[in-house]
Amino acid sequence: AFPDLSGPSEIKGVWKDSITLPCAYVPVEDLVQQTLTWTVVRDVGSGAIIRRDDSGDHVLLSEYRDRVSIPKDAPGNVSLLILSLEISDRGTYTCQVTWRDSNNSLIAKEITTTLEVVKVAATKPIIRAAEPGLTLPAGASTSLSCEAGGSPPISYRWFRSGPAGTAELLSSGAELAWPSLRASDSGTYFCEAHNR
């Protein structure tokens, strides 16, 4: 019985996020993994990204240095983790494994996955409060934090409702904090999430 590699034929990643390109097999007795190579074909060039052999893991394409890894202690899991996806990472990735059998013959298998890199608009943010309930005594400290999904980087701005539908910009950043509340801090606050 020879191992079969399994993984998806296509996968979507979010720009600036990380992604795992799955590639796995069920280890078979008497077959020893010799080499594992991930290669890519892209608009901006092709080549071997990373190679694992007896001497360790070697990253061969400089634009993937410090951005790619393969699980260390998971026999049969030879997936490729890519950090901080760039638009230029999109392309066709091939996972190739060779095994040596008890007769010293080599067996090779490969599978191919197409990676698309997409940009995702910021979602409508949600506000999380440090305390349950937003009626607090004067002098207490509290904070509100704003969270949105989408392609990073996401920036946040906090506003406070003013008279006649106006809004006063308070700060930029995900958190709005009050070290010591005053009665005049009562009001309606809202946040805005923005990405590219």
From TrEMBL:
Pfam entry (one): V-set
Molecular function (Gene Ontology), one example: complement component C3b binding
Domain of life: Eukaryota
Ig-like domain boundaries: 3-112, 125-196
Listed GO biological process terms: negative regulation of complement activation, alternative pathway; negative regulation of interleukin-2 production; negative regulation of macrophage activation; negative regulation of T cell proliferation
UniProt-listed PANTHER family: V-SET AND IMMUNOGLOBULIN DOMAIN CONTAINING 4, V-SET AND IMMUNOGLOBULIN DOMAIN-CONTAINING PROTEIN 4
Protein name: VSIG4 protein
Organism: Motacilla alba (White wagtail)
